[in-house]
Known about the structure:
By secondary structure, the chain is of the alpha/beta class. The chain contains eleven helices and eleven strands. A hairpin with a 5-residue loop joins strand 10 and strand 11. The model has no long low-confidence stretch (mean pLDDT about 90). The site of iron/sulfur cluster has 13 residues, from helix 11.
Amino acid sequence: MEQPTSGALLDPYGRAHTYVRVSVTDRCNYRCTYCMPAEGLQWMPRAHLLTFEEITRIVAALARMGTRKVRLTGGEPTIRQGIERLVGMLGAIEGIEDLSMTTNGHVFAKRAQQLAEAGLKRINVSIDSVDPDQFREITRGGDLSRVLAAIDAAREAGLLPVKLNCVVIKGTNDEQVLAMVRHFADRPDVVVRFIEFMPFSDVDRRKRHLPAAEMRQILGEHFTLEPLGRTTDGGPAVTWRLAETGQTVGFISPITEHFCQACNRLRLQADGHMRTCLSREAAPSLRDLLRSGMSDEALEAVLRARVWAKVAGHEAHLDGDFRAFDGVMTSIGG
Ligand code: SAM
Ligand code: SF4
């Protein structure tokens, strides 16, 4: 098969790329234990970050090749100054139908309305515990009440459904599988999703990883789980309905039931590096290419070539050969 020069953004495995996750900053106001060290990281100098105009140019080029979904992430996207302006710019791109954000919710509540007015459609909120003390420990100082307020503010602003991301770490918050479901049982517009911890080292893989099947077992002791399958939006969550409460619960299992064969996503890092696979560091930054005066046409050609060079899948499996992900989550954008 030859690399196409027009039409959908295809890789050699026939996967069409319609979704881009944009990390707008590597900085964060939390320090989740599984994501970054207590002292933070060596942050990117501000001049290294893509400007809003550069992000818009890249997303517009992708939209011309079939991208329909954009998610803003980070680091913490709400702490990038003027993020509402970027939301407005991306929402105005022809072809972009779905504009969402993944946030820790800490400063979200008071901005929910403004972001919705700027064109944001939905949010995912990261919440690993509904116990305030455990939440503070996992996030190293986070305030659960603010995150719960963010969830309510998003519902009031019509950013629906609100999807929650709970990373389950063996020996740390396993019991939250049940606690989270119970906590949100009376809110049908809130979907709780459990995410397998992604290992950045072999020790993590062996000690802290809880497979999604075991999470389902925990719930299965209290509820009847009816399979709903993969979500229709092409996302990675496999959903189940709890017969007793009617709640939909999702599981995202990048390691044990990985979904590489259906991968339709690209990741744009805050410094302009493009990842076609979560596991692989990307080579020359699109930022440098744009700043050297690259035309839109040439940019599209570079994007096509990068997607054509995409790997079949990551190799961070539980058994056998193991290759951890390169880099840090805050610049990759989760
Ligand atoms: N700060 C925002 C937040 O926390 O929602 C957005 C960025 S954060 C890196 C995106 C997602 O990645 C969060 O849901 C977080 O829980 C998840 N994440 C970070 N490190 C992870 C890991 N090692 N394994 C699984 N998920 C991880
Ligand atoms: Fe920040 Fe999100 Fe990482 Fe937590 S998971 S430290 S909130 S970027």
